[in-house]
Design goal:
The chain has 396 residues and is of the alpha+beta class. The chain contains six helices and 22 strands. 14% of the residues lie in helices and 29% in strands.
């Protein structure tokens, strides 16, 4: 076939499109780099294989020592009516203190939740209000006393289910053979799918919902299906809405949760939460928020907050990807921060089914290449009171 005749100068448009080499940078730039810090941290600390699709653990605490009144009592009254069920906490000869008035009482008899008491100690008699809290200081047994009544606090069963996640990719045989900028497929896609798969488990760790369906329906072969619960599923006691996050509000938040569990706690916070915290050392409110210091905890870069109540240095991990969830008008997941006790969280992959790359998954005889990242695992999240959650933070 004869070419086109060109007279005069030859510009770039006279060349055939396929004749010109493309100036293509071999480096492919990601919009979102790997930000799965919780998955990284939980993988570097305690991890044990699960041997069933349901994992269980036992939680225990010391015998309770606080009781409260369901009704007020006059000054010098000899009976106190406790909140329903709390009579089981108290024994005859226990010494109680009203934590509001300071009045001491000795328990002489118990009828379900009604105590017969006599005033003791230096504090004067005073009327008690409904809701007053009494500290069970301890028992005072007379000399030669008989064996006191025994009390037992039942342990609590914690559980979670394993979840199967599969991140797949498929190419025709021809597509795997041609040359591409940035490298050939499916190797490039395998790198991207690894990040995608890891991000799934990051989301499960925070936002997973716990469930088990014995029959997942005909579309799933009528087989069982489990889903792993994340931190948001377990944290109930210390889940608080704090719209205006100040150092005082944050310290009060910490005072409730830091009394439980270990001091190995890490704050995973959305950008709006960290932005609000960063203002504390810019507006004369002190240096509670330390800012970046180049340190790492469990292999993850962190900032830090110094607790005014407990004096602990609490690592702060910025969850940049949660900015995608941010909505100032209707606060949701983009306005949250999780304080996680890393000593009370454990990753539990099912035996022989931890994350693995499975290749050559295409049907035999089909001219394609298929592969996947496969994981079956769950999280053990013990003692929900050792963790906490802030919701609804607004930048102001």
């Amino acid at each position: 076939m004869a070419g086109t005749v060109v007279q005069g100068n030859v510009g770039t448009e006279e060349f055939l499109a396929d004749e010109k080499q493309i100036d293509m940078d071999e480096k492919i730039r990601m919009l979102r780099p790997d930000e799965s810090q919780f998955t990284t941290m939980s993988s570097r600390i305690s991890s044990r294989s699960a041997v069933r699709e349901k994992v269980n653990w036992l939680e225990e605490e010391d015998f309770p020592r606080l009781v409260s009144l369901s009704a007020g009592a006059l000054s010098g009254a000899t009976t106190l009516v406790l909140t329903a069920g709390q009579g089981k906490i108290v024994r005859v000869n226990d010494v109680l203190r009203n934590m509001r008035t300071g009045r001491g009482e000795l328990v002489t008899a118990i009828a379900t939740d009604t105590l017969t008491v006599s005033g003791i100690g230096a504090a004067p008699a005073a009327a008690s209000n409904s809701g007053d809290v009494y500290l069970v200081v301890g028992d005072a047994q007379p000399q030669g006393s008989d064996f006191p009544a025994s009390k037992y606090l039942q342990r609590v069963l914690g559980y979670n289910f394993t979840e199967i996640t599969r991140t797949t990719w498929t190419y025709t045989g021809t597509a795997t053979a041609i040359e591409l900028y940035g490298g050939r497929e499916p190797a490039k896609e395998a790198v991207r799918k690894a990040r995608e798969h890891k991000r799934k488990w990051e989301a499960i760790g925070f936002f997973g919902a716990r469930s088990f369906v014995a029959d997942a329906g005909a579309a799933n072969g009528n087989e069982p299906m489990g889903t792993a619960g994340g931190l948001i599923e377990f944290i109930q006691t210390n889940a608080k809405t704090i719209t205006t996050l100040t150092p005082d509000a944050f310290d009060l938040f910490l005072m409730d949760v830091m009394q439980y569990g270990s001091d190995n706690k890490v704050l995973f916070a959305a950008p709006v939460v960290v932005a609000q915290m960063s203002k504390w050392n810019r507006t004369g409110m002190g240096t509670q928020y330390a800012g970046p210091d180049g340190g790492k905890v469990h292999g993850v870069q962190i900032d830090a907050y110094i607790s005014g109540a407990y004096g602990y240095r609490i690592p702060v991990v910025v969850k940049k990807e949660w900015q995608e969830f941010y909505n100032a008008a209707t606060p949701g997941y983009g306005n949250m921060a999780f304080l996680v006790d890393m000593d009370y969280v454990e990753r539990r992959p099912l035996r022989d089914r931890d994350t693995k790359l499975l290749t050559e998954q295409q049907p035999k005889g089909k001219d394609t290449y298929a592969a996947e990242y496969f994981t079956e695992a769950t999280y053990e999240i013990a003692h929900e009171r050792a963790h906490s959650l802030i919701k609804g933070v607004v930048y102001s």
